Write a sequence for this structure.
């Protein structure tokens, strides 16, 4: 249905892949590139994946930093190939994307990005409502 | 009605909250745990994992059994989480084996502080104390449907096969 390519500076991409697999088990359509871990040109691998993309599937490319070179290079590739590029990737975003069963449109991606953005927050201690009754729960 | 009674040593956590309620089609989660029912901080932390996507109620094991006996509870599909097999067995026998579609022993015994040498290691995520092993055998002998399936994309294994090995 949808497929994903995560590209980051060094091994974070692989980490996103591993954590997504651990949490959801849904990684058959997820590929990752750990950029700059060696001398090789990772953009060639990225272009190969993007150009051989199955036309029936929507490809989403996720990068780590807006101004970083990974995202710069992928932005240039947007002119040549059809895919959706999202930067500032976080784990909640990856999870909501892979859990999506419908084809992802740009609009749907915008909603998921907004949801994932809200996950970035400072946590305050909370008080639980210990007076919750069985009937509240069952109503 | 209990769609699934899950044994998980972390109770509700990312894996559980993300995948199971959707998979089971339930929006009611009950955590049946004696310690958590007395600890407000832990209750708050447990509720964070679902973030408004499901209703969560934390009760001690006896309180949970009482809840399941409420006539209203019989028509609501529920996902129930405990952190040890003996609590699952208490619920099963408390309800005379009724209303429970499946017991899933997913993860158990990794963080209870009990010496690993005193436990039976079934696989990497299941370490049974003697009490838990007895409870598991008791469940199997009463004919309960007991499986091991960590996440929905895993294959459900019959727990009786795992115990034999």
């Amino acid at each position: 249905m949808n497929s994903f390519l995560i590209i980051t500076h060094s091994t974070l991409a692989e980490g996103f892949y591993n954590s997504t697999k651990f949490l959801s088990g849904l990684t058959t359509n997820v590929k990752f590139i750990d950029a700059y871990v060696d001398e090789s040109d990772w953009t060639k691998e990225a272009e190969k994946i993007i150009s051989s993309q199955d036309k029936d599937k929507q490809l989403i490319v996720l990068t780590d930093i807006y101004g970083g070179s990974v995202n710069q290079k992928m932005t240039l590739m947007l002119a040549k190939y059809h895919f959706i590029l999202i930067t500032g990737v976080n784990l909640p975003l990856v999870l909501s994307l892979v859990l999506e069963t419908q084809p992802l449109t740009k609009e749907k991606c915008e909603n998921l990005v907004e949801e994932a953005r809200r996950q970035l927050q400072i946590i305050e201690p909370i008080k639980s409502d210990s007076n919750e009754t069985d009937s509240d729960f069952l109503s | 009605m209990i769609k699934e009674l899950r044994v998980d040593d972390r109770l509700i956590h990312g894996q559980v909250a993300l995948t199971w309620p959707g998979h089971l089609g339930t929006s009611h989660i009950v955590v049946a745990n004696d310690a958590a029912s007395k600890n407000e901080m832990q209750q708050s932390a447990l509720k964070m994992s679902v973030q408004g996507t499901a209703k969560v109620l934390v009760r001690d094991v006896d309180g949970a059994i009482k809840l399941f006996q409420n006539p209203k509870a019989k028509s609501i599909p529920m996902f129930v989480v405990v952190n040890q097999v003996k609590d699952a067995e208490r619920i099963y026998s408390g309800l005379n084996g009724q209303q429970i579609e499946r017991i899933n022993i997913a993860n158990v015994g990794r963080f209870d502080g009990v010496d690993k040498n005193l436990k039976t290691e079934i696989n990497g995520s299941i370490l049974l104390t003697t009490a838990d092993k007895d409870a598991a055998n008791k469940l199997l002998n009463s004919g309960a449907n007991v499986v091991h399936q960590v996440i929905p994309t895993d294959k459900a294994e019959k727990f009786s096969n795992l115990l034999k090995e």
Summary: Chain A touches chain B at residues 22-26, 95, 99, 125-128, 130, 132, 134-135, 137-138 (CB under 8 Å). The mean pLDDT of chain A is 93.
